[in-house]
């Protein structure tokens, strides 16, 4: 049984009361016209994502559902406290494991999960970034299973994507349905770009003179999230650069401009660790900046998020985040983890192999809905094939129960129907820890599907937080 966020028993829940009549009385021809209008806007301004390996044009239009997801202010306040708490603990963990490793000395987390993790970067051991912040934009993926039951599905500490969709979803809804916003008190999200710029500026290195110069480093227009990179640079009023636009001279990083070299203080990188600097990581990288890591280690430039931050969002490390909260903050977790089996543990391994048809199994470094098995939705052949992959490398996988993700009303071809959703709020960590009231709601548009990723057929919704 799935929790319906709009209908509870025979009653419409309070946050959706103002939308119930609007949804039910909208003529089908008007709905189709508005849906076409939304798609036209998305296409005109280039809101796409890329899917490679399937043939044809890799750029896809992300499906947009006009029915917003709504939270009461009281619901949001609890989520906000929980997300901020988690972001603080994850940054404390990163400061610790790249320093003294007290949590490992205390045997609260296995040493091998950290120091033998592919995402752990030995090149930055002992380096403390400004304000001790390693992950500056933390995306926490949340699912709801009941009225007051929220769970963290996973943490994203490197370069969480999707915030451009959060902002554009709101812009399109306000453009198409201005009366809804005039008659309802909805918290704004449009402050995010300025908050992000302030957050990045607040972690400028000590060697910075005057106002810091912030840039976004992109792998280029072939990257699946390139639209977001260019969108955020435009919204923040900063430069979007590729590796070839930057160079190192002495203790600093510079940007090539028509007026000559300009020093760069903060790099919001959307390039993976291994491609950042060919002199430190992959020698064949054409995306990074030679010598960048020497400048970073010497305190001449800040990189957001810091190289090596990915060790905190590994899916095996995820199971220990509640312990991090207790260890570093001395608090009980506000948001719960999903029950998780770590297949490097013998008992967990045996249990999962005997219950593959009931569980969701994920690669510890997987993302985008790839590298996973949804047992109840898989065939016997698919389960048998996945079993072989697990047996070949058990430590590469974790397993979780098939969650009863909540549903929200969604416009579909036949009219309105419930579809499963999740939520990704974006927490900014710098001088302060902040997040705007809302986030990216992803929706599984296929009937019965629990996979919300856009690369797997999912879409997006506007997320409303009602003012009191």
TrEMBL record:
What name does the UniProt record give this protein?
Answer: Putative circularly permuted ATP-grasp superfamily protein
InterPro entries, sorted = ATP-dep_Glu-Cys_Ligase-2, CP_ATPgrasp_2, UCP005522
Q: From which organism does this entry originate?
A: Paracoccus sulfuroxidans
Q: Which PANTHER family does the UniProt record give?
A: BLR5612 PROTEIN, SLL1039 PROTEIN
Q: Where is the Circularly permuted ATP-grasp type domain?
A: 68-444
Q: Which domain of life is it from?
A: Bacteria
């Amino acid at each position: 049984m799935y929790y319906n966020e709009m209908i509870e028993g025979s009653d419409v829940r309070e946050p959706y009361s103002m939308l119930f009549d609007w949804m039910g009385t909208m003529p089908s021809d008007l709905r189709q016209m508005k849906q076409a209008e939304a798609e036209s806007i998305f296409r005109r301004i280039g809101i796409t994502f890329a899917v490679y390996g399937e043939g044809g044009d890799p750029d896809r239009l992300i499906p947009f559902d006009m029915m917003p997801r709504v939270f009461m202010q009281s619901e949001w306040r609890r989520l906000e406290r929980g997300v901020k708490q988690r972001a603080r603990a994850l940054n404390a963990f990163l400061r610790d494991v790249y320093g003294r490793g007290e949590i490992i000395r205390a045997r609260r987390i296995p040493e091998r999960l950290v120091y033998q993790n592919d995402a752990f970067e030995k090149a930055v051991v002992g380096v403390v970034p400004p304000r001790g912040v390693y992950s500056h934009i933390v995306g926490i993926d949340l699912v709801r299973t009941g009225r007051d039951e929220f769970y963290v599905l996973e943490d994203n500490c490197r370069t969480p994507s999707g915030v451009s969709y959060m902002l554009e979803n709101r812009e399109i809804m306000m453009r198409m349905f201005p009366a809804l916003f005039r008659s309802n008190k909805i918290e704004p999200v449009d402050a995010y770009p300025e908050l992000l710029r302030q957050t990045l500026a607040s972690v400028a290195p000590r060697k910075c003179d005057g106002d810091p110069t912030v840039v976004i480093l992109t792998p280029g227009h072939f990257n699946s999230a390139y639209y977001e990179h260019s969108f955020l640079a435009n919204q923040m009023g900063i430069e979007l650069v590729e590796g070839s636009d930057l160079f190192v001279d002495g203790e600093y990083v510079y940007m090539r401009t028509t007026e000559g070299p300009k020093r760069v203080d903060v790099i919001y990188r959307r390039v993976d660790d291994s491609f950042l600097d060919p002199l430190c990581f992959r020698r064949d990288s054409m995306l990074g900046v030679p010598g960048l890591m020497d400048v970073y280690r010497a305190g001449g430039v800040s990189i957001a998020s810091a190289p090596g931050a990915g060790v905190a969002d590994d899916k095996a490390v995820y199971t220990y985040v509640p312990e991090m909260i207790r260890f570093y903050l001395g608090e009980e977790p506000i948001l719960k983890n999903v029950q998780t089996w770590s297949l490097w543990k013998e008992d967990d391994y045996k249990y999962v192999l005997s219950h593959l048809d009931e569980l969701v199994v994920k690669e510890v470094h997987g993302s985008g809905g790839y590298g996973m098995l949804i047992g109840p939705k898989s065939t016997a052949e698919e389960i048998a094939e996945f079993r072989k992959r697990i047996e070949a490398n058990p430590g590469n996988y974790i397993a979780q129960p098939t969650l009863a993700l909540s549903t929200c009303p969604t416009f579909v071809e036949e009219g309105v129907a419930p579809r499963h959703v999740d939520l990704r709020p974006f927490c900014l960590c710098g001088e302060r820890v902040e997040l705007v009231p809302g986030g990216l709601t992803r929706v599984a548009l296929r009937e019965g599907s629990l996979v919300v990723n856009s690369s797997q057929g999912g879409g997006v919704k506007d997320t409303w937080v009602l003012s009191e």
